[in-house]
Design brief:
Blueprint: H1 6-25, H2 31-63, H3 70-83, E1 86-90, E2 93-96, E3 101-104, E4 110-111, E5 113-116, E6 119-122, E7 126-129, H4 132-135, H5 138-149, E8 152-159
Parallel strand pairs: 1-8
Antiparallel strand pairs: 2-3, 3-4, 5-6, 7-8
Helix pairs in contact: 1-2, 1-5, 2-3
Length: about 160
Amino acid sequence: MSDDWHYVHQLAVLAGFKLIVLANRIGCEGKFLLELHDELAEWLAAAIARLRSIMALERQLASEHDDEGLVALQRHGEEECFARFRITLLDYLEIDFDTHEYRVNCGEWHNALSADCDGIEVRYPSLVALTDDELGTLAPIVGAIGSETGIAISIARVVYD
């Protein structure tokens, strides 16, 4: 497949997966899985929107002169953003090892240091991925999205030890 059709192919694949996620949502048992399906569909819609933006910029480059190179620069930025696009469902853990702080889901920063008579201890929470049993019928869909599109998907919860 030529590079010209790469984004069209990606758009078709992501749109297909969005439809599969929405169709699979019908058979969900429980509110938790319904919410996971809805959130994944929203993330896929965001990826589709980014691809549409790239394709619109490519059309603009093909039909107009870009003497200053601004459209090409914008397209390059959009392509870089799409290349780094990742889907994070449930929890997101950010750790700053320099300050010994962490935060969950872009919330407030918390200190991981604790001290007592035995000394200083640093304890960070960790992420634990949901099992295929917990994901149910969403598990093979998530795996297929990752393998066919290259978009990494994290479905994990924070665990405090």
